[in-house]
User: Fold 4Fe-4S ferredoxin-type domain-containing protein from Peptoclostridium litorale DSM 5388.
Amino acid sequence: MFKTVKVEDAIGMAIAHDLTKIVPGEFKGAAFKKGHVIEPGDVQKLKDMGKYHIYVLEMGEGILHENEAAKRIASCAVGKGLVCSEPSEGKITVKSNVDGILRIDVEELYEVNAIEDVMFSTIHKNSVMEKGSLAAGTRVIPLVIDEYKIKQIEDICANKGPIIYVDEFLPKKGGIVVTGSEVFEGRINDKFGPVMEKKLEELKIENLGIKYSRDDAKMTAAKIEELIEDGADIVICAGGMSVDPDDMTPAAIRNVSDVVVTYGAPVLPGAMFMLAYKGETAIMGVPACAMYHRATALELVLPRVLAGERISKMDIVKMADGGLCLGCDECTYPVCPFGK
Assistant:
């Protein structure tokens, strides 16, 4: 399939694959691309790179070069909301071209990676993606590969769909109900509402404003209803989520909702999180920990709702795996294990 030739004898021959040059701390990349025809002046450059021999490819029937193989894998395995690079040194990188949530068929991913001489790696599923952020990479391990292995991948993806895609964030309107008689009466300043407003802003959710309520289930339910009438797709109820006798937010959410998905989540911080729906509007009860922690159960649910997903009880249950925040001195979320 390919033969080894001394660089001195390779003048006039085409390089079979990208040749990597590494200068520690300065450069790593392809100094010579696949197909480059070696000239006399290239010989010393190649030797300076430690390349005293090169491969000259002699392709047989049913054999694919690494670059062509990577292109075919990416073509069938990568779905909407993503763009692929050109092959470089046999590898293709996959990036998001929209803001949204990364979706991965994990079982399909495993099935493809079980095929010998193939790799396809991703970041974690349900990751929040910004336009231009890295999502995946793929390549084959050897320089050349039997075409039937690539056809296996194409058949898998034809039957199951792409391995990876991005659900783009949808335009949404959100409102906030801050509960607490002490805030409503002006005894203390509201510090919860501005934190929630910032979270809406970060996700580009149109903010319909903050409404305030006493610790009174009927009043809180009325404020939720007002926001829904104003067009809210998402209502965040901030505070009043504990088991204290004055905390009436869960009762208010139950009273106004058609479906209560959960009161409580296997996530720390955020165990007292609540999710319900009235029609298509998602209503979230957010405990006070969200004032002080950068990442809570809210961060695991809100982006998925924004991408158009209707969250089920089992979705909440599955958050137990990775649902414990390490409480690091310096928070690096989302580049950390939380929610993964």
